[in-house]
Structures are given as C-alpha cells and as structure tokens.
Amino acid sequence: MDFDELAYPDDFEVGGIVYKGQRDRRKGEVLIPYSVPPSVKIGDTIVQKNGPNLYQLFVTDADYLNDSTLEIGTKHAHMLTLTVQNLASEAVKPKAAPTFQIGTLSAQQVQIGDGNTQTITISLAEVVKHVAASPDHEAKGLLKKLLENSTVAAVVGAGATALLGLL
Question: Domain for residue 67, yes or no?
Fold first, then answer.
C-alpha cells in the first residue's frame, strides 16, 4: 500500500476541487498538503468524503504554512491547517437552555422558572408593623389575641410585649 495514501487518506472538496488530506476529529482539524493554495476562508464550508458519507465541515480558522510538510507522505511542500466543526454533529447536540440576564431585582419574593419552590420569609415584627399601620381592626384584634397567648409569648419571648406595644 502507498504510504502517501495512508498519510492523507481522506478526500476534501474545497471550492469545487478535491484534495487529499487528513482529519483529526478530536482536535477538529483538517490537514491538506498543497502546491497551489486551496481557496478557503473562515466561514466557508468544505465537504469530506468518507466512504458513502459526505460530511459538511464549517471552517472556523485557516492557517497556510509554507514548506512545512517536508514532503513526507506527500509530494506537496506546503500545508493548509483548517479548524472545522462538523455541521451534522452540531445539529444533533442538545440545545442549551436559554440564559436570561436580569440586571437588578428589588423585591422580597421572586420566582423565576417553572416547577421550583418559593420560600417566603417575613419577620413577625414586619407582620405586626404592617397590620398596625392598616385600618383593619379585626386583623389588629386577632394579632393582639395571638401575641397575648401564653404559648406564643413563650416562643417569641420578651419581644411579644414589645410587639403588643406596636398595636
């Protein structure tokens, strides 16, 4: 078997011309030895033929290197190194959830998203303060009755007397 064929086994169509080359899938690189530079630029799509399959490769970077092959595995002196993305594999990758940037939130309770829980934290002093400021006499009476309860007074402690003073 021909060593050149082993070194550059893949066929790449660049601008309508077929070149022999080599693709490293892990690095996302394509190496194409050349004598006359292939006409390719960032944003172009090249096609790799591999058996019955055709792969469209999107070019994200191109580097033309003069006299870099040392004519090992090829009769061409120069090397084109392309950084590529396989468009077919990009299409089947799971899409990331959208990210929303929210500048500043000024709120006590905020819920963003679906299916999550919202924890509401409010101090007893805030409740008493807001009820005391309201015109609702029934709410004031119920709250006063609650704070006078011996069990509630034991839980709240000395603060219960202070809170009663707000009402």
Answer: yes
